Amino acid sequence: MSSAFLTQDFPELLAAMLAAAACGLIGCFLVLRRMSLMGDAISHAVLPGIIAAFLLTKSLGTVPVLIGAAIIGVVTAALSELIRRLGRVEPGASMGVVFTVLFALGVVMLASIEQTTAKGVHLDADCVLYGAIENIVWIDPPGSFSQLFDAASWQHFPSQIVTLLVVLLLDVIFVIALFKELRITAFDPGLAAAQGIPPGLMHYLLMTFVAITTVASFEAVGSILVVAMLIVPGVAAHLLTDRLSTMLWLSVIVGVVASSSGYGAAAVMNVNAAGMIGVMLGVLLAIIAIFAPRHGLIARRSRAHDPTAQPIADQVV
Fold first, then answer.
1. Which of 120, 208, 230, 278 allows an S-S link to 27, with CB 3.0 to 4.6 Å?
2. Which CATH class is domain 3-135+154-303?
3. Which residue has the higher pLDDT, 27 or 120?
4. 167-98-61 Cα angle (round to 5)
5. Which ranges of the chain would DSSP assign to H, the alpha helix?
6. Is there a contact between 117 and 60 (Cβ–Cβ < 8 Å)?
7. pTM assigned to the model
């Protein structure tokens, strides 16, 4: 077992894969609700929430940052809905207004405290936007497979990975526990309300988990790549299946494959890992969009030239 691999490559790769899995899982519901822009809105709008938590606690601890992100995520969703109703504008326009204003506020707040240091913590704009996956290292990793079972070897395991793992487990529990409610409210809010399921509550719960997942992924991949991880795996999975349960698993697989292949390509080409992961997400989506067995470009062209072919519905069930 290579100590260099465990120190640098293994934690970086694991962090990228966990971030992609968590974002892909929760992002499927944004895709199905036709709210893909909300992922972009929240990923940018949570910046003032992070800074506010930092100013109040003088620390970038996991709990206060996630609480700040959850609060600002709900605020983003609420303001977007309020502007949509009062201004009678399209949902995309209202989300665009909210996230640009909140992100601009966050940039101003960040610039005002850019030189602030508390307990050795420094808020850096580049880290928030582009991530700092190269800073995730495993200090004093085990030197052999047998030492993996030694508790002392895990004392210095990167906290970022622990946070991502906890958030992924929370996302899985959330989706499993409320799968029926999430599915009904995603496709037919009116039917959900008739069955006693509050669509508004489910909407804000989902936005809360989107915000938490986004912030947990920031340090690894940055807010820009988080947007791609939230949307691209879900879109790719949507092209491959018409079943929601299968779509959730496929979105996780797409995200993990893109992260691992992107990180490997970045190591070979000596380029930024987060950027290459984004490229691989685009490459995988392009391949799936062309070759998907039912909804791919080739399959659709074949059915268009076959008069006996039956039309295929695009609705996920």
1. 230
2. mainly alpha
3. 27
4. 30
5. 3-4, 10-32, 36-57, 62-87, 91-112, 125-130, 159-177, 179-187, 189-194, 199-240, 244-269, 273-291, 297-304
6. no
7. 0.84
